[in-house]
Amino acid sequence: MPNTDVDGQPVEARENVKCPQGWHVKKNWTVELNHAVDNEGWEYGVGIQPSGLPLVWNSVEKTYYSHRRRRWARVRWRNHGKLNLEQETLSFLQLHHPVSTQEEGWEYGTIGSKFDLSPQPQSQFRRRCWHRRLAPNKDKGIAPIFLLEGSLGIDLKQQAEKEEGRTSSRSVNKTFRDTWRPAPENTKLPHLPFIYCIFNKPHYYQLFCYIYQARNLMATQIQTFQGPFVRLVFLNHSQCTQTLRSSAAPTWAQTLIFQHLLLYENPQDTRESPPLVVLELWQRDSKGKESFWGRSMWPPVVWLDVQHRILPPMRWHPLGKELGEEVGEILASCELILETESLRRKLPILSVPWKNGVYTLPKSMQPTLRKMAVEILVWGLRNIKQVHSPWLLVECWEETVQTEPIMDFRTNPNFSQSVLFLTLFMPTEEAYALPLVLKVVDNQDFGQQTMVGQANIDSLQPYFCDPWASDYVPPQLPKLSVNKHQLLDYLTEKFWFKSSKAKDEYEHEVDWWSKLFWATGDPKSLKYKDKDYHTLKVYDCELEAVPAFQGLQDFCQTFKLYKEQPTSYSPVVGEFKGLFRVYPFPENPEAPQPPRQFSVWPGKDDFPQQCLVRVYVVRAINLQPQDYNGLCDPYVILKVGQTKLGNRNTYQPNTLDPIFGMMFELSCTIPLEKDLEIELYDFDLFSPDDNIGTTVIDLENRLLSGFGARCGLSQSYCQSGPFRWRDQVPPSFLLEHHAKRKRLPPPLFNPEGDSVFYNGKKFKLQHFESKPPTAQYLGPKKERLALYLLHTQGLVPEHVETRTLYSNSQPGIGQGKVQLWVDIFPKKLGPPGPPVNIRPRKPRRYELRCIIWKTADVDLKSVSLSNEKMSDIFIKGWLFGLEKDMQKTDIHYHSLNGESSFNWRFIFTLDYLAAEQVCVLSQKDYIWSLDPTVMKFPARLVIQVWDNNVFSTDDFLGVLELDLSDMPFPAQHAKMCSIRMMDTDPKWPHFLQHKHFSLFQKKTVTGWWPCQVLENGRWRLSGKVKMTLEILSEKEALIRPTGRGQSEPNQFPTLHPPLRTNTLLSWFQSPVKNFCHAFWKHYRFKIIVGSIILIVGFMLFSFMYSAPNYLAMSWIKPAIRMNMPIKIFTNIVNSPNTSNASSSDITTQHPNLEPTTGHQLKLLRGPMNHLQDIFPELPAPQD
User: Membrane-crossing residues (predicted)?
Assistant: First the structure.
């Protein structure tokens, strides 16, 4: 066949092929050689039945090939202007497709192949598709909902099971509700209708795109961007901006307008979901070759009514080249406006300025330009490897400036030129702020130049300043007045609600840890505040993160250099240290020029500078576990340049919060060795040690900072003592240096040193010290006053910073924190003071001796054979945290009244840290553990009273817990012992509270303490125990040895077995006592009532028995007949036997006689007056 198409079907000769309508031939037919063909364009193959045409073609001719072919191609161009805009849009959208009346809509194909509209020789089947349109009935108000894929999210598998009857019968609503879930991806939905979108007429729009500027365009060449231009694509239309010359931030300030755009969609839908605007950034080199840079897409703002239109603000849109790769940003905005019948005649709808052959931005969008000065402090380059002679290129808009090359980068990486100056017109609005590009270029051999790295500064707004302002902070005098509310609170706490806790005046050594604990509010500081020692500041973040210190980059900032667009994973190729200051020029040319901002800086002749660095690593907090037991064994490694300090043998075993208390001292050269790396590793016995985390400190920033970060200011100037002045120079020298840096006159002190004239004001020491200080070791008045003034300038105080550790294995995720501080001492200023001692505190070993004497009023839990309550009492005791060393007394059997006697001694050994009032325990978790685990517990003695049971578990009777450093005074008698003694925070005045004391101070104490038990959420008294507590040091315990319980050596004091009554034999030894105890305890009320009844009954019986006789005698009254009165002579009375008896004695013995004068007795009248009754010794009367 002379001429065929690609499928092998015969066609007419190529000379007779005409162009379609609207096209013309640009280049005639030529052989196509851009395929796998030979030099003449032929390709060969073997015919295969049934069509007889080859399926595979080769470019090399073989003898068995039966077919050959070659392609002819020509170039045709479209005739612009033949079709209007609407026809082009319709052609692009393929909305019209003329169907011939002879075509029947068949598709042809073979088994396993795709169907084609044209029949082929190998075609075996044909098919065509029939469609019909479904429309809802007008009487139905609800439109039909088809089962579309993913529309309702119905589980089709369950729906099919329901149709086949394999699912349980449920209501339709419940079935739909239970099967609501996303449809699977491989779901096939057969017999679903097509959805057609039919519009009655198209709508016309106009698109306005406002393009201003691009930034953050990273380039690997010295020239950032060559010939940049923007191509905007919307639907099937595109336009380009003008091409600019090379620029770091190309600025077009141009408007692209698309007129009479055709959209087949409802305007309301267009406003909700408009087509995307595609903006592409291209660059064109000197040869005219275009290269794609990046693309950005976003929807335009749609306005259906021009009257309500608001100009859209410009926004920064990211430019991406690949998915997730950002190559820059562009400042632009777009709006899509609907054309109405009244606005079609006006093209364009909006009036946009026309200038130099392009549409510029509207006046409301054009930024306001002002002449500005940009000062650039170029300090130096850091951490750049394999460079010879680098230099810095600064680009801002279309202005560039560069530094002199650094000739010897290895010995001095600072620039010889310190300040660069730029003058340009800059927008005053922040949205149009000009970016600034920093490029580091290296001069290599033979005149070659390579770009090392680049840093982009998006906006210079943070560097705007007032050139006439001063950053000097005037000193603020402290307020000496006391708030009345504070005074009232103080008096209330002092004289009324005062804590009853023990004020432990245990004289332990005051160290730096007391200072730290007081700063953090830890109770471990004890009475540190009362000793008038000044405190320090503890920051919960890095010192650079404290807002008041400006990241310690007030002198110069650190800008990281990249070779590509910076991301979280982009490698840093170097650093540039510098700073920027931007300020406006006066509008009046005759006005004085503003002063330069970088006229005062540290001398570059002093750099590189030898420094002594002391690193104090205090402790780590919440480290990431590294071992199988959920703990780690951390140790510290320090790196500065080639220096490495630290020892893996100093690891802290089995802890996530290690206390290091280590000081590292090293020498380094700044800025050659400026990065201090602090690494924490996990010690492993066999495998390599794991890196827990690392933190990096820039020593150069701290040395150059004006906040005095090289050595924090202490709160007091002490010449000796535990808190001696650490710096090399006194406070007066620092104040003079600070005044010079702030461009102030030097301070003038009076000869006494108690006043100073500083910055035009006079300050006195009494302004800061209202009363004489009580702290010891203070320096002279001059230095103290200078230190007070330094503290008012916002300088870095004596501190401890908390730095987060990061690991390369988990970037961006904290692995714990470490608390430390760094002191930097330039060697040119002389030797520094002695280092601070921050070694961890060591506990002291003590021995606690507890003697259990007796108990009283203990609850009775058991019942004896005589149905009376009793208990077999014994006592357990241990120290909190040392439960393995629990001890117990012997058993006091058959206690009927809660009383028991033991005379038993407990002995406990403890390692006590007096400064923190805790016990330290170091023990291994397992037998095979390599190192012990250190734990801290409160020094608390636990005493428990139990009831012994033979066949069941013992009954708990009560508990007593005593804090050895804060325990209540015991009662002297059991009756005085109450549960109120154990109240920890009673709401009573302090003079009514029970006093507390520290056993470590009092050494020994004896008395009664209450035992308590928890019932119904409240504590109640359950018994009392008498003990003797004694604390001894390790040396004292060796001098006075004693044994546990009653074993030898039984001394200090000697404990004898208690005298206990055997209850089984007590009935025979003292039956009355036991009987009374047994009956009186249970029947005392009945016995008392019975006794009262018996007494009253006996009295009634006696009255009834003697009442008749008495009443009879009272009623009868018989006359008593008696003889004449007997005259008793004196001699009878004064007989020899009774001569010594006086009348008073006689009358005393005989009340019936009445004394008379002349020693005569008178007989009294009465019913029973018989002489013999009166004087029984007299003889009977005779006639």
Answer: 1087-1107
What are 1149-1155's contacts with CB under 8 Å, separation 24+? 1150/1174, 1150/1175
Inside any domain, residue 238: yes
pLDDT digits (tens, 9 = 90+) for 251-277: 999 999 998 888 888 899 999 999 999
782 secondary structure, DSSP code: H
Q: Which helix (H) or strand (E) holds 824?
A: strand 810-826
pLDDT band for position 330 (cuts 50, 70, 90)? very high
Q: Could you say which of 1041, 1060, 1079 is where a domain stops?
A: 1060
Q: What is the pLDDT of residues 840-874, one digit of tens each?
A: 989 999 999 999 999 999 999 888 766 778 899 99
The DSSP 8-state label assigned to residue 31 in this structure reads E
For the four alpha carbons of 185, 190, 192 and 195, in that order, the dihedral sign comes to positive
Dihedral (CA of 930, 934, 939, 945) sign:
negative
Dihedral of alpha carbons 1033, 1034, 1040, 1046, sign: positive
CATH code of residue 317: 2.60.40.150
**Confidence class for position 353, pLDDT limits 50, 70, 90:** confident
Does 630 map to a domain?
no
Query: Where residue 767 falls among pLDDT bands split at 50, 70, 90?
Result: confident
Q: Is residue 299 part of a domain?
A: yes
- Comparing CA positions, the residue from 684, 623, 690 lying closest to residue 659 is 623
* Three-class SS state of 547: helix
pLDDT in tens, 1032-1080: 999 999 999 999 999 999 999 999 999 886 655 555 555 665 666 566 6
Please name the residue ranges forming H helices in 710-806: 731-741, 781-791
Q: How far is CA 353 from CA 211, 313, 332, 356, 1102, in A?
A: 14, 18, 17, 10, 139
How far apart CA 1140 and CA 651 sit, in angstroms, is 111
CB under 8 Å to 184, separation ≥6 — which residues? 156
* pLDDT in the model for residue 47: 87
Minimal CA–CA distance to 550: which of 437, 433, 462, 675? Answer: 462
- Higher local confidence (pLDDT), 247 or 1163: 247
Do 1025 and 920 sit in the same domain of this protein? yes
Per-residue pLDDT at 775 exceeds 80: no
Q: Which residues contact 1034 (CB under 8 A, 6 or more apart)?
A: 844, 845, 846, 847
Number of domains present in the structure of the chain: 4
The distance of Cα 177 from the centroid of its chain, to the nearest Å, equals: 43
Within-domain flag for 1065: no
Q: What is the CA radius of gyration of the chain?
A: 54
Question: Where is the domain boundary, 1016, 1043, 1060?
Answer: 1060
Report how many helices (DSSP H) and strands (DSSP E) the chain contains, helices first.
16, 53
The CA distance from 939 to 919, in Å, is 6
342 and 410 belong to one structural domain: no
Burial class (CB in 10 A: 0-12, 13-18, 19+), 848: buried
Q: State both tokens at 673.
A: 């060795």
888 SS3 class: strand
| Co-location of 406 and 462 in the same domain | yes
**In terms of DSSP H, where are the helices of 149-262?**
156-163, 172-178
Q: Which residues, in sequence order, are bridge partners of residue 1161?
A: 1155
Same domain, 395 and 352: no
Asked if 882 and 1009 sit in the same domain, the reply is yes
Nearest residue to 273 (alpha-carbon basis) of 298, 308, 309: 298
Are residues 257 and 302 located together in one domain of the fold?
yes
- Element holding 676 (H helix, E strand): strand 675-682
Answer yes or no: do 339 and 375 share one domain.
no
Which amino acid, residue 1115?
Answer: W
pLDDT of residue 176 exceeding 60, the answer is: no
Amino acid type, 765: L
Domain region containing 1018: 844-984+993-1060
pLDDT of 342 > 90? The answer is: no
CA angle 1078–1081–1085, rounded 5-degree value: 125
